[in-house]
Amino acid sequence: MHLEERIKNGMPFYEHGHTDPIDIEQEKKLEAQRRHCKEVMFDYNNTRPSEDVKKKEILKGILGHCTDRVFIESPVHMSYGNHVHLGDQFYANFNLVIIDDMDVYIGNQVMIGPNVTICTTGHPVYPLYREMGAHYSLPIHIGNKVWIGANSVVLPGVTIGDNSVIGAGSIVTRDIPANVVSVGNPCRVIREITERDREYYFRDMKVDFPYTLREEG
């Protein structure tokens, strides 16, 4: 099985040092894609704050999927870019990092706080394999209306269900179901999202706008 197929199937792989001609060509192709993404991220991160149209054009040119209603604060860093699929009304704050050796699927109306890392790639625990430079990559799925708090990390193969909240500083190592609040290292469910959350936005602080009408609108 050749390099690109091994990556696609979640198997251990090496980015460099292949001897098979097909693997060598695939290695060169992937290296060129990574370098291209670095160039594009440099361009994006050095646009002026007022250049919204240019920012969107840059994202549409590199990402696997991106709508007009996507905004990512600079700086942002990705490995390939073309493996990142963003839904509508996506927002990410400063210092988003996406290691997208494998696909990352993010739903609609997702909010991501500052300094969040989404990483599809890991290394085997056994030290010999790391000495050999082995990687593995597993896809990440983030549902609709998810909020990921500041300084959180989402690790390979994780799925986060619709509407869920990942508390600040969490390390998400396993799947998180829909409609829950989860936090910690490792990230664990602490409670469900309930009707009380419709009425109180933070602790005992009550929502002061007509939330039912706002939701319907």
From TrEMBL:
GO terms for molecular function: galactoside O-acetyltransferase activity. Gene3D superfamilies: Hexapeptide repeat proteins. Belongs to the transferase hexapeptide repeat family. InterPro entries: Hexapep (IPR001451), Hexapep_transf_CS (IPR018357), LacA-like (IPR039369), Mac_dom (IPR024688), Trimer_LpxA-like_sf (IPR011004). PANTHER family: ACETYLTRANSFERASE YJL218W-RELATED, GALACTOSIDE O-ACETYLTRANSFERASE. It is an enzyme of class 2 (transferase). Residues 4-68 form the Maltose/galactoside acetyltransferase domain. Keywords: Acyltransferase, Repeat, Transferase. It holds the Pfam family Hexapep. It comes from Oliverpabstia intestinalis. This is Acetyltransferase.
